[in-house]
Write a structure and sequence with these properties.
Elements lengths: L6 H23 L11 E3 L6 E3 L34 H17 L6 H14 L5 H17 L2 H12 L8 H16 L6 H17 L3 H17 L3 H14 L12 H17 L3 H13 L7 H17 L3 H18 L3 H15 L19 H14 L3 H10 L1 H5 L2 H4 L2 H17 L4 E3 H8 L3 H13 L5 E4 L4 E4 L3 H28 L1
Antiparallel strand pairs: 1-2, 3-5, 4-5
Keywords: Cytoplasm, Nucleus, Signalosome
Main location: cytoplasm
Protein name: COP9 signalosome complex subunit 2
Length: 508
Amino acid sequence: MKKGVNRGYYRLLVEISAISRSFQFLSARGSFAKRELSGVCFPNPNGGKIATASHRSPPPSTLQSTPATMGSDADMEDYGFEYSDDEPEEQDVDIENQYYNSKGLVETDPEGALAGFAEVVRMEPEKAEWGFKALKQTVKLYYRLGRYKEMMDSYRVMLTYIKSAVTRNYSEKCINNIMDFVSGSASQSFGLLQEFYQTTLKALEEAKNERLWFKTNLKLCKIWFDIGEYGRMIKILKELHKSCQREDGTDDQKKGSQLLEVYAIEIQMYTETKNNKKLKQLYQKALAIKSAIPHPRIMGIIRECGGKMHMAERQWPEAATDFFEAFKNYDEAGNQRRIQCLKYLVLANMLMESEVNPFDGQEAKPYKNDPEILAMTNLIAAYQRNEILEFEKILKSNRKTIMDDPFIRNYIEDLLKNVRTQVLLKLIKPYTRIRIPFISKELNVPEKDVEQLLVSLILDNRIDGHIDQVNRLLERGDRSKGMKKYTAIDKWNTQLKSLFQTVSNRVY
């Protein structure tokens, strides 16, 4: 009930509620076989009380001696008007009014609101829900005003309510709400953030609220990840892992969902730090857990990071599979990362030289004309038609949606090489001899790049022929003339790499 409602109406509702509870209690006791209500509830015209006319059937032993008329006050005892004691309810209404009046001042008169919330806490005879709500609003208001010391003082008082004054579910909801509120500006108040979370975790340990303790640590872990504090992350991750283990130190499969949440944030850290060895171990562990029913967002994170890991190892088909699974999980969770994973799926498909268009599938088809995806749709269309000029034009004109993504940018050269390879193979097919300058013009790349590409294709046995460097020609069909030279160059290149690695290891 909000402020401004007529006081008489409040009292009327309170009285009706009290009378209803009284009748329910009497009915449950079953003391009498039957009770008849001979009157109705109505407002007393002379005051604020609610009067009820009630009739009780007298015990059988007194029925014969009871006069038929009601001439005395004693006779009226069971027919009188009864008034309930509404003092506690009135006090609750006053506290509730005070709370909503104070809340109404938050935007226009912050100081008045703070004073009002303090009054709510003072009005409660013992710690209860309205005081908890008032302290929650006080914490948020102090934070907005930049008065962090007062905020933390109020927050500590609020945390004393979670043991018994409010339900566990409600306290968890409020604490989560405040954590999200404060965490929104983590970079601006690093010290405050640390103090805030330490205070919360200590209170949750004392209250033995393991579930919220776990989720709070996960939130803190995510904050450290976002600002690159990996050392702090590792410390918290150890505690989280420990909470998901049995006494013998092995993972407790009964806590599979919690384990996957820990793995997800840890996998993100190893993806960011490019620690592929650790990443692969955790990725395999995560996929091996079958007992959990995790949130699809968690599986989306694990699959996306797995896809990036496979891309780094140039395992394009495995990467495409993971990105597709990540897309489906994010889509189920309603998470916007689905668009990014769809881009990565298109990238992996082109790198594996697949002729299958991922947008032909029913899962991805609805996103085909999404503004973020449209550039990738056009890109794969140009790729499948081997239109290299159009392909490069799309890359240049969609720099924001394609080239500005660091992950995609890492593989653009591989992608261009693939497209140029397809165009080159198609271009030389009718010829036994073809000039390198002509190929350079058709591919729109320097001659030295054409020569490197030709050498690579000859070594991979995709072109049967050799290069005449004097006449700047590719001669097809007589591979033996150039093969020995290319093999020797390749061997020389391998030996130089090995020598460089040996020298580097000794120096560093």
